[in-house]
């Protein structure tokens, strides 16, 4: 369906899976990540499958790098905003720079790339944007407060764009995975999802024009339940889990 696709955060994890799946479907690729040497190796492999693979080594938290990627994002049929960053720890205990980087990458860069791509896609009358969020968007996230809030932004932002872009023939979808194994062959199960299945579910959803995709039956069941749980109870449960994590960390340090 997509002739050309840009994948950010393509050097590893779900982003690498997006790139491989899209190449298998014959899409030419623009691969974006900080680690240029890793991208070059991936691009060389994908070119062996008969597709073009362009490497854009860029740190999307840097204005000049983001501007370069923005210009290229206006030229693709599918934008996969996969790049993201999460810092774990108490909000006041982590460096402010960690929080700033999360907001810059997870929110600002995603918003700017979406803006560049959507305007061009709407003018052409076709295209897709897949924004990677998280089930963390649906519940308090003590220990990763900025990350959870940034993913809540992604979900809300994407749902609004989905409505705006639909009439122009552009599909905008939020992908909301739960815990995902980022290594090949890592065990999955009740809690953990495999990265390739997550990527495949996201691509299928944006192709079908869905507003949101929650991979995994367990997480698809969880999200509507969270919406029904009173906010106070959600905070109480998340607080208990946070305290247990802190206690586990304390015992490990002893």
From TrEMBL:
Record's keyword annotation contains Chaperone: no
InterPro entries the UniProt entry points to: KR_dom, NAD(P)-bd_dom_sf, Sc_DH/Rdtase_CS, SDR_fam
Keywords associated with the record: Oxidoreductase
Domain Ketoreductase: 3-171
Single GO MF annotation: oxidoreductase activity
Record carries keyword Oxidoreductase: yes
SMART domains linked: PKS_KR
Stored PROSITE patterns: ADH_SHORT
Pfam assignment, any one: adh_short
Domain of life the protein comes from: Bacteria
Family the UniProt entry places it in: Belongs to the short-chain dehydrogenases/reductases (SDR) family.
PANTHER family: ALCOHOL DEHYDROGENASE
Protein name, UniProt field: Ketoreductase domain-containing protein
Source organism (scientific name): Actinocorallia herbida
């Amino acid at each position: 369906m997509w002739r050309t696709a840009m994948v950010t955060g393509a050097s590893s994890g779900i982003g690498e899976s997006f790139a491989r799946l899209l190449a298998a479907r014959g899409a030419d690729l623009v691969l974006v990540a900080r680690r240029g040497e890793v991208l070059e190796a991936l691009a060389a492999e994908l070119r062996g499958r008969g597709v073009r693979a362009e490497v854009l080594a860029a740190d999307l938290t840097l204005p000049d790098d983001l501007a370069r990627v923005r210009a290229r994002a206006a030229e693709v049929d599918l934008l996969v905003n996969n790049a993201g960053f999460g810092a774990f720890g108490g909000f006041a205990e982590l460096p402010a720079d960690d929080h700033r980087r999360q907001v810059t990458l997870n929110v600002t860069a995603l918003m700017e790339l979406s803006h560049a791509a959507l305007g061009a896609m709407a003018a052409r009358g076709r295209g897709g944007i897949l924004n990677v969020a998280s089930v963390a968007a649906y519940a308090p996230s003590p220990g990763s407060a900025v990350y959870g809030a940034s993913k809540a932004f992604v979900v809300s932002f994407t749902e609004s764009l989905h409505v705006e872009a639909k009439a122009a023939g552009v599909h905008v979808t939020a992908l909301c995975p739960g815990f995902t194994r980022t290594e090949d062959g890592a065990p999955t199960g009740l809690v953990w999802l495999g990265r390739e299945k997550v990527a495949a579910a996201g691509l299928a959803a944006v192709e079908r024009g869905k507003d949101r995709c929650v991979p995994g039956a367990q997480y698809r069941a969880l999200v509507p339940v969270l919406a029904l749980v009173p906010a106070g109870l959600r905070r109480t449960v998340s607080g208990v889990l946070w305290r247990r994590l802190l206690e586990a960390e304390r015992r490990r340090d002893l």
